[in-house]
Specification:
397 residues, two-stranded antiparallel sheet, 18 helices, transmembrane helix, ABC_transptr_urea_perm_UrtC, branched-chain amino acid transmembrane transporter activity, Urea ABC transporter permease subunit UrtC
């Protein structure tokens, strides 16, 4: 037991937690649930992509984005456009006034496929677009705001406005986007029937694999020089700027990474839900995603991902058990968690781990605990700036 406690307090802790989380997703859940429920869990995991992006730009960068649903929607719509075109062959749409175009376009009296839809006949173009377009939008948006030093609540309000504007735009362009109904009714991916139970299992595993890759990539970024500067920017932006670092470039970079993660989640959601609509782009989902990140732990990639899965699953069961009261019960649960554990579920884990190390660990375990406490201090404001600068900027070469 001493060995386990020493590992939990040392450098191997994150890898152990990652392994446990991977085992839960790859082994336990597929054995415990059938294809239908696994598909629902896969949709919840798609939201976890956005949550880990929020950890990077909000928890570490201090940028509260209330518009991550925009990037989630961009990825989802890119995937949905490809899937819809695959389902809209001339043979499948022979009864339409204009065969070969999506049904909602025919209903809105379009007579030809719009030029900007044409490239989405290619799966390779779709994959590139769902990564590059959100990154480009995040770059332009971030450059316009960060270069003008827009931050704090003003940044949150602007991103919230972006989500509202995008949702209104999609609803208003019904003939091109499907309007309020969104893009629906696709059954195949490259000729492969995605409605079967076996397909649901495969897509779920793909979603889990991509999520784990994004978590590892995000952890690598946060543990690198860029991550250390990002923490310093969050705590003392002006002093970091006076030290010669381009604060805006670091903010733009992490905002772009969060956007790409969100877009991947949107694509996986569209693939598993087999639809995408403005509700996945607008204000409601964007705010909900921030709540999921806060409850899971905005300083922990694994905590945010686990929190998204746990909270959405709890929401599903509560809505079935208490159809009239579940929103009130759910809100009370979230309120208690946020007030009692400011660092979310990840903070609850830290308390339990520290208690175990303090009461049952050896001297080596206590040393590991002190080392871990030093690392955790980077997430808070307990120390003065000079001490934090020595810890953070002193490690940058």
């Amino acid at each position: 037991m001493t060995t386990i406690l020493r590992l939990l307090g040392g450098r191997s802790e994150w890898l152990i937690c990652l392994g446990v989380f991977a085992a839960l997703l790859l082994v336990v859940l597929p054995l415990a649930f059938n294809g239908y429920f696994l598909n629902l869990l896969g949709r919840y995991l798609a939201l976890a992509f956005v949550a880990i992006g929020l950890v990077m730009c909000w928890g570490y960068g201090g940028m509260l984005s209330l518009g991550q649903g925009v990037f989630f929607g961009l990825g989802g719509y890119a995937m949905a456009m490809f899937l819809k075109l695959e389902a809209s062959t001339p043979e499948a749409t022979a009864k339409q006034s204009t065969p070969g175009i999506p049904d909602f376009m025919d209903w809105n009296q379009l007579t030809a496929l719009p030029w900007w839809w044409e490239p989405f006949n290619s799966f390779s173009f779709t994959l590139a677009a769902l990564l590059l377009i959100p990154a480009a939008v995040a770059y332009v948006f971030g450059y316009a705001l960060f270069k003008r030093r827009v931050s704090g609540v003003y940044f949150a309000i602007v991103t919230l406005s972006l989500a509202a504007a995008m949702s209104i735009l999609i609803v208003g362009q019904q003939g091109y986007t499907g309007g309020a109904n969104g893009i629906t009714d696709f059954q195949t991916l490259l000729g492969w029937d995605i409605t079967t139970d076996s397909a649901r299992y495969v897509i779920y595993y793909i979603c889990v694999f991509l999520l784990l890759v994004c978590i590892v990539l995000g952890q690598w970024i946060l543990s690198s020089r860029a991550g250390r500067v990002l923490i310093a920017v969050r705590d003392e932006e002006n002093r970091v700027r006076f030290s010669g670092y381009s604060v805006e470039d670091f903010k733009i970079f992490v905002f772009m990474v969060a956007a790409v993660f969100s877009a991947i989640g949107g694509a996986m959601f569209a693939l598993q839900a087999r639809f995408i609509s403005p509700s996945q782009v607008g204000i409601g989902l964007s705010v909900e995603l921030v709540v999921l990140c806060a409850v899971g732990g905005r300083f922990s990639l694994l905590g945010a991902a686990f929190g998204a899965l746990l909270i959405k699953t709890a929401e599903m069961y509560l809505s079935d058990l208490f159809p009239q009261l579940w929103t009130i019960l759910f809100g009370l649960i979230l309120l208690v968690v946020v007030l009692a554990f400011p660092k979310g579920l990840a903070g609850l884990y830290e308390l339990a781990r520290d208690y175990a190390l303090d009461h049952f660990g050896s001297n080596q375990s206590h040393a590991a605990l002190e080392e871990h406490a030093d690392k955790r201090s980077l997430h808070g404001r307990e120390e003065g700036f000079l001490v934090r600068a020595k810890r953070i900027l002193g490690g940058i070469r």
